[in-house]
Backbone:
């Protein structure tokens, strides 16, 4: 318990430091917040453009699709706020030897690597993503119960963990490669599928991206909860894959850590 | 050393440097296949129950995205803006101020060398999946040859525009400590107005016309549309080529202006 509290105190200190730094460079913070807002708009625009020419994608209507995309954006904004910068920089740190400093810090290396920075510009767009979800829910005339909203929040949390695990596993490849340049694209390539309805995937694609990899379940399960109500099997599936893939990602990171030899003096 | 020999040496050095990271390029190209799978699934589902969207059948739209993805590896200025920025920030451009080498031409040579490596390496995974996706694609018929003739210079101009925009962003380092946010915002704009998210011809006609006067239209969408038959009016194609050449010249002049003005702010210290 004391170790848990100690790490929590370290995380809060990191968040405090990051907030102070963000306010020192307000221009940077505003610019990045706008950039993220623009990318979110691009995703919403794609839904609008496609539905200008069709009524349904795999049986999902325009606003069901918008709710799905909004859920994906919500999870991704949380990832951007808490973990993206930290894991993205892991590649550079390993190559330059700066990673040694994380190993010398008084905490679990993975925790220290993952929580050093907190990006306020990611967090400020969480309400925007939430607004997209709420807008879509209203257009669908949905009236979720308090329990549904609570479970939805929990599923978004599971989605955040799954995105974190995906990114960690991919970036950890830097311990085997000379550079992480370009491989972070694997995260974006995989998480694109979270903007697809599960019903759109058939055959091999369904086996790989729905059942083998957690990239579709991340957003589909929470969105379906709001649209269709409680589906216990889906909830259990989401919980199971979250635990499994987090364990896999941590194992990959530690396997890479064992390979790591310092590049600094 | 002749001018050509000078930049040929830079080009060859660039090839060697790029090949050091060949596994990263290969992995990046393989991950890009994931994007292709996503595209095929999304648009396949969107086309369900209808024969065309925006006047184009599913095969034409899928072909558009496949060609676009391949061209991105051959044309996109992946890291040139950051590399230029770092060279300015670290003072590495000082060596170019005292030697008979033009920095723009130097970076352009490196750009072409890197694009050849990434482009060729990216073709390997595509060739592997071609037997599977080939039947789903459809290139324009033989009478489209005239458009291919227009596409050839369009591709070169697209590459020049891509590089010059990246070069201009790199030049901003003379004025700004951090340019990453500018670049990422520009990438987002390019993604939409360059036809990377959806073919621009699916936009409302007035928006499509407006976008055809912006440089982003000519970065990726224009050569891709020429190659895949989304532009079917030869006079419009030739007009597009002229506008593209105009943008290439404008951006080149902007790049020269930024370099000249930037050097006035630049301080080179040390021996």
Residues:
């Amino acid at each position: 318990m004391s170790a848990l509290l100690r790490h929590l105190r370290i995380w809060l200190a990191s968040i405090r430091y990051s907030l102070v730094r963000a306010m020192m460079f307000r221009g940077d913070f505003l610019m990045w917040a706008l950039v993220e807002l623009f990318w979110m708009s691009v995703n919403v625009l794609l839904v609008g453009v496609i539905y200008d020419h069709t009524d349904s994608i795999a049986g999902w209507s325009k606003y069901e699709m918008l709710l799905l995309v909004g859920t994906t954006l919500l999870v991704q904004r949380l990832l951007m706020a808490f973990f993206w910068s930290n894991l993205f920089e892991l590649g550079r740190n390993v190559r330059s030897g700066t990673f040694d400093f994380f190993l010398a810090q008084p905490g679990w290396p993975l925790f220290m690597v993952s929580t050093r920075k907190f990006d306020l510009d990611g967090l400020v767009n969480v309400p925007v993503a939430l607004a997209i979800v709420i807008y879509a829910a209203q257009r669908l005339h949905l009236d979720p119960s308090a329990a549904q909203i609570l479970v939805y929040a929990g599923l978004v949390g599971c989605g955040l963990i799954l995105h974190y695990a995906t990114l960690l596993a991919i970036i950890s490849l830097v311990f085997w490669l000379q550079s992480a340049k370009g491989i972070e694209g694997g995260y974006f390539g995989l998480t694109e599928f979270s903007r697809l309805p599960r019903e759109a995937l058939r055959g091999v694609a369904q086996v790989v991206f729905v059942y083998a990899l957690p990239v579709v379940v991340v957003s589909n399960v929470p969105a379906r909860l709001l649209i269709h109500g409680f589906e216990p099997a889906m909830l259990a599936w989401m919980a199971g894959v979250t635990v499994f893939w987090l364990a896999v990602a941590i194992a990959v990171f530690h396997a890479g850590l064992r390979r790591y030899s310092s590049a600094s003096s | 050393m002749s001018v050509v020999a000078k930049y040929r040496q830079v080009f060859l050095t660039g090839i060697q440097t790029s090949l050091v990271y060949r596994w990263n390029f290969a992995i990046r190209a393989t991950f890009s296949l994931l994007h292709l799978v996503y595209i095929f699934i999304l648009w396949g589902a969107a086309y369900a129950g209808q024969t065309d969207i925006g006047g184009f059948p599913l095969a034409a739209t899928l072909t558009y995205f496949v060609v676009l993805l391949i061209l991105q590896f051959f044309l996109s200025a992946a890291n040139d803006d950051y590399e230029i920025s770092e060279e300015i920030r670290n003072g590495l451009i000082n060596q170019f101020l005292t030697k008979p080498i033009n920095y723009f031409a130097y970076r352009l040579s490196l750009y072409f060398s890197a694009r050849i490596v990434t482009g060729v390496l990216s073709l390997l995974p595509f060739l592997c999946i071609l037997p599977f996706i080939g039947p789903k694609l459809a290139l324009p018929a033989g009478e489209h040859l005239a458009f291919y003739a227009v596409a050839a210079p369009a591709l070169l101009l697209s590459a020049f525009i891509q590089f010059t925009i990246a070069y201009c962003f790199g030049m901003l380092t003379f004025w700004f400590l951090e340019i990453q946010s500018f670049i990422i915002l520009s990438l987002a704009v390019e993604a939409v107005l360059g036809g990377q998210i959806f073919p621009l011809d699916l936009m409302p006609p007035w928006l499509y016309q407006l976008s055809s006067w912006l440089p982003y239209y000519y970065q990726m969408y224009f050569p891709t549309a020429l190659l895949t038959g989304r532009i079917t009016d030869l006079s419009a194609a030739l007009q597009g080529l002229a506008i593209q050449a105009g943008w290439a010249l404008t951006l080149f002049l902007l790049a020269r202006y930024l370099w000249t003005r930037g050097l006035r702010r630049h301080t080179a210290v040390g021996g």
